[in-house]
Amino acid sequence: MPLHSIVLIIHVIAVFVLCSVLCIEGLALVHLRAASTLSEAHPWIEPVRNLRSFAVGSVLAIQFSGLYLVFRTSSFDQVWPKVAMVALPVLMAPFGNMTARRMRAIREAFRLQKANNSEMLGMLRAPFLKISLGIRIAAFLGIFLLVSVKPGLWGSVSLVGSCLAISLLASVVPWPRRKTVSSQSA
Question: Which of 7, 40, 64, 99 pairs as cysteine with 132 (C-beta 3.0–4.6 A)?
């Protein structure tokens, strides 16, 4: 099997892994924000152990395999690969790192019971977590579209910018909360 095929398979698998990580994170965030008690939130604080390792590994694999594929296909003179290579580490890595730190602090607070219930539930509903996830999903989708469409400079910038703008708008829309048992019976 030629090296190009192996690198392409690694690239596609890494994209699937990153997509899975973002889906798991989104599902966990929906459940964390909807939790009305700490016992409801507890299973979703860390739904998959070492999820961050999968995210970091897939981003690195995407970067290196993507760089190889771009050079191999002589596409580096085009703009879209440059925008994609910048957008991935600039948009996804810092927000992923800040979210990981915040979630580590939340897990620690839950483990040690450092705060009261309302404070801990408030940490889970912090707007930053929703905005960060939205930005990372937007960057992922924008890069995926870049690779599919292969536009020029303004098309690349407007494509990623549009994804980010839609994501930021969606981040400020409140998510519906689950009704608690006591409010349903009333």
Answer: 99
